Amino acid sequence: MALHFDPDSSQLHGISGSQSNSKVPEKEQMQGDDGARFQLSQPIPQVGPTLSASSSEPDRYKQIQDDFMDSQECEAFYDFKESVIKVVYNGRIKAVISEQGHFDPESHQRLDAAFWGFEPESDMQLWTACILAEAA
């Protein structure tokens, strides 16, 4: 996915290949400590926050290359204005990462290690430290 600046709307838009059918790829993930497995195959609603920047701030975002994000079919962008990392999936912000943790962009609730499929929690903390260092 690439970012495209539309001067008429003064916003950045995510552009990717033909992803009109926005389904989460089916994959097994672990949830919690009990080892329960579930499959994600529900459509992703086309609502929620997106990356945007006005024409006065064209350098607001820097893309961060990250193997884990690639494996999740996501992209990570450092937001210079808010000093956070925004994780984007299918054009929508999936998570906001800062030194305080990982948060849902709409509800502002903390996301735990199970959200990303990390086990144990310390693996997520290590990855968070690495991606924050990459952004700096």
Automatic annotation (TrEMBL):
It comes from the Eukaryota. Residues 1-60 are annotated as: Disordered. Residues 24-36 have a biased composition (Basic and acidic residues). Residues 8-23, 39-56 have a biased composition (Polar residues). This is Uncharacterized protein.
